[in-house]
Amino acid sequence: MSTQPKLSEQEIIALLLKRDEKGFNYLYDNYAGAIYGIITKVVHLKEYADEIIQDVFVKIWKNIAQFDAEKGRLYTWMINLARNTAIDYIRSKGYQNEQKNQSIPEFVNDSEQYATTPNVDHIGMKNVLLQLKGEWQELIELAYFKGYTQQEIAERLDIPIGTIKTRTRNALIELKRLLKDYR
Amino acid sequence: MDIKDYISSGIIEAYVMGLATEEEMRILDCIQKNNPEVQQAIIDAQNTLEDFASQQAIAPPPNLKSEIWAKISDDQASPVVVEDVQPETIAKPLYPTQSTDNNKATLKWFAIAASILLIASIALNFYLNNAQTAVKNQVAALTETQKNTQLAYQNLKSKWDMANNPQMKSIPLLGVEKHPDMKAMVYLEQKSNNVYLALDNLPAPSKEQQYQLWAIVDGKPVSLGVYDQDSETAVQKMTAIASAQAFAITLEKRGGSETPTMENMYVMGKI
């Protein structure tokens, strides 16, 4: 990542609130990869991801005052902001229309959704998601990267919503275990 | 539901992933304020997703950083106004994109939910109240039955004890000609001359009247007192008497009479 001293989230927030470029630099150097990774998981295409990441950083910069530390950490907030922005993007009319005219080779479609996106290079060693059980992969894909509600997933998979909830929990517990090996 | 069940239901994960409904989020926000276990579970889940994001990181194209900074600097030229903010992503960044309904609708649903809860609570109250009254009545009825049974037992026991006491002489008083079915028992303790009376089959007297026991001593009636029909004790101790030859019961005015009203003599028995 970078040779900058490690800043706490409060320190980053303070810099951002002061509109200090150092805040932006630190944020970008430390979190742009994760944010870009998330966006890529949602939109799959580099050109879209390049556009969305700009949006996300502008939003973070503009809306940092609205960040509520009581509801979670800055990193989590940024992850969700990136995820939501990307999901909003693929739901927008323009994107949907474009998809209809998209030439096939450039678009990673639904059936290949678990494959590593070909257009970008992973920093992470392996796609940890692929090591999860199939039903857990599917769940995280649908819920986390496609933005379906649990109710929608329950209907789509024809599984009770309670099962969806506990399955999501189990998927995260397994994910946590797998991620320990990457630390 | 205890807090462990709540945590293991998967709600924390849904919350952290932005999948929980607004209602679920509000409930969880409330719970987590006072519950370190829930707070920790949220932190754990956040850590997992943050680690996941870090692990899945992809380096963005190098030119993007300066492009973004240029954009931000441009924007900064114009003053930052809160109204610029896109509320659907900003005000509730943890919320699912598709549940960013406007607040009015949410409030409406909350009002409805609150009303339903209130009604349910009132109904439950009524139900519990009724159930409690029913249980109270049942307990009262059982207590009454228990008391009566106990009483019956005590009375039987005292009669039984009298009958089995070798010192005790049982003298049946039988109905006179007019009242052949009537019956009472006098128990006479021989050493002390104590007299006990039990009415076996005598009609219940009116409130103004009482049965009075007489001992016949040398042909003359001697009052041994009245039988208290209001008492729960069936075998009642009367005035002690020595050298009685017979006993009789008459129905007298309440409190008893000086002399027996002979036409109201119901039962009699000789020693």
Description:
The complex is a heterodimer of chains A (183) and B (271). With 183 residues, chain A is an all-alpha fold. Chain A has two domains: 112 residues, Rna Polymerase Sigma Factor, Chain: A (Orthogonal Bundle), CATH 1.10.1740.10; 60 residues, Orthogonal Bundle (Arc Repressor Mutant, subunit A), CATH 1.10.10.10. Chain A contains eight helices and no strands. Chain A is globular, with a radius of gyration of 18 Å. Chain B has 271 residues and is of the alpha+beta class. Chain B folds into three domains: 95 residues; 64 residues; 105 residues, no CATH class. In chain B, 46% of the residues lie in helices and 21% in strands. In chain B, strands 5-4-7-8-1-2-3-6 form an eight-stranded antiparallel β-sheet, covered by helices on one side. In chain B, strand 1 and strand 2 form a beta hairpin. The longest helix of chain B has 62 residues. Chain B is rod-shaped, with a radius of gyration of 46 Å. Chains A and B meet through helix 2, helix 3, helix 4 and helix 8 of A and helix 2, helix 4, helix 5 and helix 6 of B.
